[in-house]
Amino acid sequence: MQINHPNTSPDFYTVSGGNIRNGKRDGRLLLTGEDGAADNYKFQLTSVIASDDDVTLPRHHHAFDQVRYVLEGDWSIAGEKRLEPGWMGYFPESCYYGPQWVRPNVKMLILQFGGASGRGYYTIEERKKAFAGLQEGGKFQNGMYVYTGADGAEHRQDSAEAIWEYTYGKFSYPPRRYDDLILMNPANYSWIEYPDQPGVWEKRLGTFTEREIKLGLIQLDADASLTFGREPSVEILFILRGALLLEDAKHPVHTAFGTRAGDAPVSLVAAEETECFYAKLPTWSRTRARD
Questions:
Q1: Pseudo-torsion of CA 120, 77, 125, 177, nearest 10°?
Q2: Tens of pLDDT, residues 26-54
Q3: How is the chain split among helix, strand and coil, in percent rounded to 5?
Q4: pTM score, two decimals?
Q5: Calpha distance 93→114 (Å, rounded)
Q6: What is the SS3 assignment for 2?
Q7: For the chain, which domains are there?
């Protein structure tokens, strides 16, 4: 199991080569998956640094899945679609969103992972290589990759798409399982107690695709014990408030925990009333690829 905290985490934009979008950001890289695995992932705590201008990003889509949970600030995804503090958004592979408008001082959790189509997700080193390689023939500008083609004309491509194409070659986006983004307001959900874990409660925000991607919140009463890592896939937990004990070690607010399929479950005990972000990534062991 991985355990990490923003205070001891590297900045993603430094270790991966740089920021392909505009605006100044700090992204604490908390957890990563297994290189080459279908469910490889990246989980980070990202802050948009205060500046004189709002950050705007172009309309685009991805060949992977995303989950975003806003801790502070205001983020407009597209027009009237917004994620306010406490809201969670599921961004299915191939679904367009944007143009985005991000005010300074936004802080959010960002989870990116290989989606249900099985396309996977690039590694940190692959992104770093692509970031450097693309700049040899062009530049990243206002969220786009701008370059001069063989025809002598200027071409513009979404920055994330350019990174993916550099890494994997020309590609087509996976067929969409959902028509649009799915935005969830946890405040309107009820807490349901785990039947086999007294004092542990969950808000089941949603289960998505045939791979059973699960998103939600988990709350523990003081001294309650959560058995974490029981699913046959990657699971992620992030402390939003409170603290958790693992054996003799106390882990404070904003600690992230990540398990892999096959890891032995662990017992996490609440040192005080504690609330956590929770995500379960796709299950592959019980499913078969589409014909």
A1: 10
A2: 999 999 999 888 889 999 999 987 555 56
A3: 10, 40, 45
A4: 0.94
A5: 9
A6: strand
A7: 188-280 (2.60.120.10)
